[in-house]
Amino acid sequence: MVFDSGRPIAHVARDLGIHHKTLRKGVRQVEADKGRCWATRSARS
Fold it and tell me: Among positive and negative, which fits the CA dihedral 23, 26, 28, 31?
């Protein structure tokens, strides 16, 4: 949802009723799993 919408994480998190930091953590995990983020590595990799 975050990637497709192009909207800020805080806005999407508000729509979903979750804290923006929770959503950001999930987004970073997806980025790491896809190799988009060098700072975070998945434990599944």
Answer: negative
